Amino acid sequence: MERKPVMTVEEEALKAFKDWFTSLKSHSSSGGPAKGTIAAGLVVLDRLKSDFVLDLEAHRAPGGSQIRGASGQAVKKILEAFGETRPFAKEGGRTNRGGPGDIRKMLEAVASARLESVEAGKRNEILTALQRYLVAKVIEFHNRERLKLVYDPSKSTWQLIQDLLSAARETGKEGPVAQHLIGAKLQLRFPDVPVSNEGYSTADDQLGRPGDFHLGDTAFHVTVAPMPAVYEKCKSNLHEGLRAYLLVPDRSLTGARQNAALLLEGKVAVESIESFVSQNIEEISAFSKKRLPDGLRRLVDEYNRRVDEIEVDKSMLIEIPRNL
User: Fold this and answer.
1) Is residue 1 part of a domain?
2) Of all helices (H) and strands (E), which one includes residue 71?
3) How many domains in the chain?
4) Would the pTM of this model clear 0.85, i.e. be above it?
5) Cα(120)–Cα(227) distance, rounded to whole angstroms?
């Protein structure tokens, strides 16, 4: 009779942990377990590395309804240690009422692997592997969740674009979203001219291009944080006989214009991303309120097409609202 292979302690712990995770209640907002449960799990596993106590009471905050230390900042620090820098749970596990019950079951899963019998260094390696499993779920969440565009007809087109950029900023995606919005705007405005579509992480000098986009004799630079390097790029454009266009968020517009005037003597056009994109939407909608939803939809469709074509991270895609 063939014997089943005996699992190592690490394999046993990971299996029990995965069983615990898949048993958790799924929430429509996250497409999986509550973000608060994942956040609290990361914090408790971290604490177990220095104080291996599997009694839930040792991990409760005063009052008993929350997990001790499960703050947004604590979760951010743990995720960053694994290389994940996108914001995940601002409140940590503090707003998740089901958190303590979920964490009790997690501690029971850990206990079933008898980690107390393992030497501390090896045990911490196993606890890190369990954290890595949760971090992978966080990455899956980010790659699944699309940006939310809220279409409010009472708002100006400029405000709609700024709201979208603000939503992207909250999730650490403002830079790539801004770049692809400009690319979509240029392609809509000039349908017969091929507008380059490069991944956000691809540097201009890697491709030998004068800017993020190059149309006619003009180089377009899109940045949400105008640093000295972008003005140097604009200066190089001018030396090469090109015109330069610098596009920044409205909050940076005044400073960017002052720097351009000082460093480039008024030879570079500086505009806000919000104005540059929204005016195009108004133009293709013939400044008609009735046609505006169609114009905005065309922009989003083109944006999504470009992002889907070139970016691995599909969380940059925009979820189209039902009223658009």
Assistant:
1) no
2) none
3) 2
4) no
5) 46
